[in-house]
Design a protein that fits this description.
Helix content is 43%, strand content 20%. The protein has a five-stranded parallel β-sheet, sandwiched between helices. It starts with a strand and ends with a helix. The chain is an alpha/beta fold. The protein is globular.
Length: 135
Amino acid sequence: MAKKKVLVVDDSFVMRTLIKDIVSADPDLEVVGDAANGKIALEAAKKLNPNVILLDIEMPEMDGLECLKRLKLLSAAKVIIISSVAQTGSPQALQARRDGAVDVIAKPSGAMSLDLAAKKGHEIVKAVRRAAGLS
């Protein structure tokens, strides 16, 4: 079976690296690219045709919510929000759901959640597998 392709979008290089490491640990998933903002993510989504996109909300140039709206028009990828402002029930989390995100995962310790793998790694992999139809 071919691996499911994942695109990681976060303005922080450190967070992109952490998220890529979490996803890459699953043998059924392959990180095919990453992007530092929504504008770059739209180009990457067109070029790489990922199955799942992990998307931050707070980013320069184009934030994740604007990117999410535009992604619906050009990609069949399922989008999972991973953001420090996406706490359960927050306006941003609710907006992301309304705009088509299949899951919303809050970063546990703010924008620079260096404990992401320990606190949310399993949840992220489960969400990606579910979105990619692997559960």
